[in-house]
Amino acid sequence: MHFYTYDGSFEGLLTVVFEAYERKAWPTAIEQEQLAQPGIFGTTIAVTADEEKAGRVWKGLQKRLSASALKELYYTYLWEQPGFEQTIFSYIKLAFDNSESIEGNYTAPCVLQVQQAAKQLHREKHRMEAFVRFQKTTEELYYAHIEPDFNVLPVIISHFTKRYADQLWAIYDTRRRYGAYYDLHTTTFITLDAAPRKGIGVLPESAVMEEEHTYKQLWQVYFDHVNIPERKNPKLHLRHIPKRYWKYLSEKQPRMQA
Fold first, then answer.
1. The DUF4130 domain covers which part of the protein (predicted)?
2. Any idea of the CA torsion for 39, 41, 8, 54, to the nearest 10 degrees?
3. Which of 85, 92, 179, 100 lies closest to 132, judged by CA?
4. DSSP code of residue 208
C-alpha cells in the first residue's frame, strides 16, 4: 500500500503521477499534506512539487488527450470533492497505458467521473459569472465575495478581467480564503491577513460608497415592478437561481427603507 502526500497544487499532483511511474508504486490514496493522516500500514511517500516533472507529465498528456479532455482534467482538480486526486491519477494512468483514445470510454469509472465533475464545475463557473455582484468601496475598489461549492475562482477571473477592464476590482473566496485582484493591468491571486468573514454583508457600512445603497434600492424597486405575481413559478425560479446564490443578489436582500 502506497500513500502519497502533496502540497495541494495541480503541479504537485502531476508530480505525484511522475513519482508513481518512476517508482512503479501505484498510489492506494493521495492526500494533501495538511490533511493527511499518518497510516499504520503501508508506505507514505511525501512528494514535493517539481515544475520540470509536472511539465513532463503534462506534455505527455497533451500527446494523448484533446484540449477539451485536458480542460476537464483540470476542472476535476478544481472540483475538490473527496477522492478527486485518485480519480485524476486513474484517468491519467488509463490515458498513458492505452494507445487508443480513452475519452469516450465511459465504461471506465474514472472517465465518467471526470466528465461529471467537469460538468458540475462548468455549471458553477457560469452561475458565479452571472450572480456575482460588486460593491464600490470608499477606496474606489469594486469588491465581491463568493462562497462557491467548487474552486471556480481560477476559471472565472478571465471573464471579469474582460468585462471590467477599466475598473479596479477584487473577488475573494471566503471559503478557501484567497482571492483575485485586478489593478487595471494584470490580475493576481491574493490572500489577506484579516480575511473577510463568510456570509452576507462582509464589508462594513463605512467601507461602502453611499451611492451603492441607492443602486441597491433602485434595483429592488425595479425587480418589484417587473415581477408579475400571476406568473410566479417558484419551482422554475429555484431551478434557474438556486437558493444558495440568493446572498449575491440585491433583489433577494432585505428591503431598504426609503
1. 84-251
2. 160
3. 179
4. B
Which residues, 6 or more positions from 221, have their beta carbon under 8 angstroms from its beta carbon?
Answer: none
Over residues 129-172, the pLDDT tens digits come to: 998 888 888 788 999 999 999 999 999 999 999 999 999 999 99
pLDDT at 226: 47
Task: Count Cβ atoms below 10 Å from residue 62 Cβ, excluding itself.
Answer: 11
* Vertex 173 angle, CA 167 and 177, to 5°: 120
Per the listing, cell 505525484 goes with 16
Q: Are strands 2-6 and 169-173 parallel, antiparallel or unpaired?
A: unpaired
Q: Is the pLDDT of residue 176 over 80?
A: yes
| Contact assessment for residue 7 and residue 49, using Cβ atoms and an 8 Å cutoff | yes
252-257 mean pLDDT:
52
Q: Residue written as cell 485582484?
A: 181
Sign of CA dihedral 70, 71, 77, 82: negative
Confidence (pTM): 0.79
Angle between helices 67-79 and 51-62 (to 10 degrees): 130
Grid cell digits, residue 237: 425560479
